[in-house]
Amino acid sequence: MFASFVQGPLVRVIPLGLILLALQRTLFVEIQVGGVIIQIMMAMAAAAGVAGGSERGAVVGFTLGLMFDLAEGTPLGSTATAMTIAGAVGGLLALIAADPHWWLEAIFTALGTAAGVAMIPLLRAFIGESEPFQRELGVVLAVVAAAAALMSPLLVPLARWCLRIRRPEWKQPVGSEPTS
Amino acid sequence: MAIYSVGRKRVILALLLTTALLLTLDLRGNPIIDAAREGFTQVMRPVQTATGVVTNPIERVWHGIINYDNVEQENIALQEQVDRLIGTQAAAEAAVIEGKELQALYSLPSLSGIDTEVARVVGRAANNFDQVIEINKGSSSGIEVGMAVVNQAGLVGKVTQVTRTSARVMLVTDLRYSVAVKVTSSADADADVPTNTSPSGLSESEIAAAGTTTTTSTTVPSLTGPIVPGLTLPDGSPVPDTTLPGTAVGPDGQPVIDPITGRPLTAEQITALLDALANAPSTTAAETTTADDATLAAESATTTTTTLAEIIEKEYGALEGRGRRRLPQIKFVQDSPSLSELVPGDLVETAGGSESLAPTGIPVGRVLNRADRPGSGGPLLDVELYADLARLNFVRVVLYKPLSEVDQ
Asked: What's chain B's Rg over C-alpha atoms?
């Protein structure tokens, strides 16, 4: 069991999550774009999905979300659910392309992040909050998704490192060059 | 390349069910989860502190780039505000002292009798949905869930979570926040606060004819008060230990203290001070380019008249937060034709009551807009808060329990 833990992704995800959480609560609270706080942890969950598939993305999202809930005092499981969905959506979108370009990864990460953020007010409505949907939700989604797309060239390789995934070395078969 | 399978789907479903279970346990209140939360906070603290130190230069550069123009404009606006406040300070002091005497005379409930705890704001919510701050005092300082939190300007929010050494404060603007408030009339109050002092006996033209330029600044005795031990401002100066906003004390928020002896003034001394203020206003500084008789006469004849405003309690309602960038709103109010109509400019303060977590009389803000609704819904009042919630450095937790909880 111990060996599986050490060889598993969590041994890297938890320390990385601590650092990202600290960044989220210090740097990104101050550096707001249009009054919107960039969600680096949500972006990381989505990037893990893009890098490792929906299952591993969901596991990473669940772990990061629990850490976020514990530190922020939000109901335990509320952000974890949103980040699990962000990771799963990122992973599902990554099925579209076998070896996506960086810009495709950025789009998938952005969409996964947006899906996760959109889940938060929905979940809060389920747990009984009145009027959890803000008027600025559209702006929040746009800014958070754009920021996630910009950060994806950094976050996706980081997620690969966390999940111990090596980028496949695809080679074009000889003689298959496109003819003009 | 990720491959989608039924097994993967099960893992995701299992994780979602786990989160639902945790959510249920947490919302019902679970000591294990509370302990885990406190433990994680302790683990997180050094990491966050180190990260804060490392990222601080980046934050400063960002603010330097983004906020420079705003800060410059704000500086100009603040300077104008300071100038205006200096002009009204003497009148405010007299009114405050008189109000304190009246409260003591009629044994009215006063905020000055409630203990408070000063705390530093150490964090903010890291998401886009909650309006929450974190303070560096917790249950070890007597803070409990539900207590009201204020700053020098007025109501800030209420405590929603407490650990031993920290607490979370839900701001007034949070969607989940609600507090009972009363709306009072302010029209008379505005009219009664003198915004300038006028020389009696000589007109401005007469002074001008005398060929002098007179600048008169009205100052009040320097009231030095206690400071908060262990806390300093960013520039290294101590943090003044101030009392609640709206408390019947001196204009600096402190009990009135003799500037010479440093001790609180007695009732007789306060009366003497009132007489002195009424008869000879504290005009202490004057810059005169040419000191002639006309200028001296004008200076000595400066009078300040203070009349206490009549406060009309118009209506009671519920103030609710509406999220970031949106003004809190008062609901459940109706116009009372026998009193007066609810209008922009009316004052809003906490209503108190036997079950309210906030004591009565904490200033909240001013009515900015009124929106009428069809039917019997009554108007909605947008409230501009006195406290600037975007810039909270130090706050004060009101260690107050409603009467309904005191006996328990």
From this structure: 26
Each residue's pLDDT tens digit, B108-162: 555 666 788 899 998 888 888 888 999 999 999 999 988 999 988 889 999 998 9
**Distance of residue B247 Cα from the nearest chain A Cα, in angstroms:** 33
Cβ under 8 Å to B: A residues 87-106: 88, 91-92, 94-95, 98-99
From chain B, the residues in CB contact with A23 under 8 A are 51, 55
**Local structure of residue B340 (DSSP, 8 states):** B
Handedness of CA B53, B57, B62, B65 (dihedral sign): positive
- Inter-chain residue contact B128 with A130, CB threshold 8 Å: no
* B79-94 per-residue burial string, b: 16 or more CB within 10 A, e: under 16: eeeeeeeebbbbbbbb
In chain A, residues with a C-beta closer than 8 Å to the C-beta of B126 are 24-25, 28-29, 37, 68, 72
| Residue closest to B134 by CA, chosen among B147, B145, B119, B154 | B119
Indicate if ipTM > 0.85: no
**Burial (CB count <10 Å: 0-12, 13-18, 19+), residue B222:** exposed
Contact residues, chain A, for B20 at CB < 8 Å: 77, 81
* Whole-prediction pTM: 0.66
Q: CB contact, 8 Å: A71 with chain B?
A: yes
**Contact at 8 Å (CB) between B175 and B321?**
yes
Name the residue among B123, B395, B338 with its Cα closest to residue A29.
B123
Maximal C-alpha separation, chain B: 99
